[in-house]
Design a protein that fits this description.
The complex is a heterodimer of chains A (250) and B (191). Chain A has helices at 6-13, 20-29, 31-45, 59-71, 86-108, 120-148, 159-181, 185-203, 210-223, 225-241, 244-249; strands at residues 156-157, 207-208. By secondary structure, chain A is mostly helical. In chain A, helix 8 (185-203) packs across helix 10 (225-241). Chain A is extended and about 65 Å long. The termini of chain B are far apart. Chain B has 191 residues and is mainly α. In chain B, 75% of the residues lie in helices and 0% in strands. Chain B is elongated, with a radius of gyration of 19 Å. Chain B has helices spanning 3-13, 17-39, 42-58, 69-95, 116-135, 138-149, 154-161, 165-190. The chains are: A mainly alpha (250), B mainly alpha (191). At the A-B interface, helix 1, helix 3, helix 4, helix 5 and helix 6 of A face helix 2, helix 3, helix 4, helix 6 and helix 8 of B.
Chain lengths: 250, 191
């Protein structure tokens, strides 16, 4: 057997290896791998969960008491997302704008291309932007997946998804414009499709009949928007982890 | 599924809030446990419990009665926790708050042999771990917490997260790699 990779050792540690017996034999025979596994196991063994605070037998009743008045609001459009103050969304977009501006400035600053190696600050800016875009794509994917995976039996309240889509639209616009300016037409094009989908969610009525919801869902499926975003997210993540020299040429 | 629970679910699906009360009282402690493991913070866990039951109440019509109600509820709780972690991450990015404030509480198991040396070692491990856990992406943290603390197989984690198996596996790998990087300087000194 070849030397197992770190990932195979992690799976082995958690008892999920496909070739448990083979790895066990190898670890017994190969001192290097044996030591590597021991190091991994020692480290993971230090990560212990602390106790979860006790909740007494009346806890369920207390939860219900706090919940009951809120259920009465059911028929009103509920804001189902956790309370994420809007100012944080705005501050997040502003921070993203700063990073994006720094990124564009870094790429177009005269002389930056003449330097023999990309300055570390520019590399860091680019990595931050790539991770920020990836996080944005992940959050957008979650919203769209929740919609695409819902099979309603009656009317559907999408106010939670709407709220999140509204928060995502501004950041998406920013990333799309940055990608277009930075000469990344592929990225800009998928972000444009994503923006259209997010706007459609944001501007729909918060309560849709099952037929209206099904039409929305089918449109997303026909556009393959979730798949496109997932692929783009993967590509962005790959790019973010490449060394700068390779990243530039990819 | 017990007959009484099945009946409560059916009635709750029809909009009977008293039937939903039975479900809340029965499952609150499980939901709190999941939420606390994910958020590492009692107040956040309490908020997540409330949010989970609100979403569940609104989505009762979408519950497939062939599935286990507790699994469905835990999935909602995880999604609520993920939303909260993402919001917390964004706030931290904006405010530059210190790492490890929430995760530290996850890792407060007292040392088994509380000698001064052991206590100092545990403290160092906890501090590094807490900071590293807070730096994981919400998905990495979720996948790691479920795999490492809760012992849930990766295939099940993938289903909960609505991701392919490979993606869930990579979340666990990335988390383990980052945590090892954070811990190894301390652990290797101890060996």
């Amino acid at each position: 057997m070849k030397h197992p990779s770190e990932e195979q050792l992690v799976l082995f540690y958690y008892g999920e290896s496909e070739d448990r017996a083979g790895i066990e034999r190898h670890l017994a025979d190969c001192r290097t791998c044996g030591l590597a596994y021991q190091g991994l196991a020692n480290t993971l063994a230090q990560i212990e969960a602390g106790p979860v605070p006790e909740r007494g037998p009346d806890y369920g009743a207390a939860v219900w008491e706090r919940l009951r008045p809120r259920l009465a609001e059911r028929e009103r459009p509920l804001r189902a997302g956790l309370p994420i103050p809007r100012r944080w969304a705005i501050a997040g977009a502003a921070a993203a704008l700063l990073v994006a501006a720094a990124f564009v400035a870094g790429r177009h600053w005269p002389g930056s291309r003449r330097a023999p190696a990309e300055p570390p600050a520019a590399q860091v800016r680019e990595r931050i932007l790539l991770f920020a875009v990836s996080d944005h794509l992940e959050r957008s994917q979650t919203v769209l997946l929740e919609l695409v995976n819902t099979r309603p039996e009656g009317a559907v309240d999408i106010s939670s998804e709407q709220q999140r889509a509204q928060d995502l639209v501004a950041a998406n616009r920013l990333y799309r414009q940055t990608a277009a300016r930075a000469g990344e037409p592929g990225l800009a094009s998928v972000l444009e499709d994503l923006e259209r989908a997010l706007l459609e969610v944001a501007h729909s009525p918060s309560r849709l009949s099952s037929e209206e919801f099904e039409r929305l869902r089918q449109r997303f499926e026909a556009q393959g928007i979730v798949f496109k975003v997932r692929i783009l997210d993967w590509q962005v993540r790959q790019k973010a982890t490449l060394p700068p020299a390779v990243r530039k040429s990819s | 599924m017990e007959a009484s629970e099945a009946a409560a679910i059916e009635r709750a699906r029809a909009g009977d809030s008293e039937a939903f009360r039975v479900l809340v009282e029965r499952h609150s402690r499980t939901v709190f446990r999941v939420a606390y493991r994910m958020t590492g913070n009692e107040q956040d866990a309490e908020d997540t419990v409330q949010e989970t039951f609100l979403r569940a109440y609104r989505q009762m019509g979408q519950f497939d009665s062939r599935a286990r109600f507790s699994t469905w509820l835990c999935r909602i709780a995880l999604n609520c926790s993920l939303d909260l972690l993402r919001a917390r991450q964004r706030r931290r990015e904006c405010s530059g708050a210190r790492d490890g404030e929430g995760a530290a509480r996850l890792l407060l198991r007292p040392a088994a042999d509380p000698t001064p040396d052991r206590l100092a070692f545990s403290r160092q491990v906890r501090q590094r771990l807490a900071a590293a856990l807070e730096r994981l992406s919400p998905l990495e943290r979720t996948a790691f917490v479920l795999r490492h603390f809760e012992g849930i197989p990766i295939g099940e984690i993938a289903r909960v997260l609505g991701r392919p198996n490979g993606a869930a596996r990579h979340c666990v790998f990335r988390a383990v790699r980052k945590l090892r990087r954070a811990l190894e300087p301390v652990v290797s000194l101890r060996r």
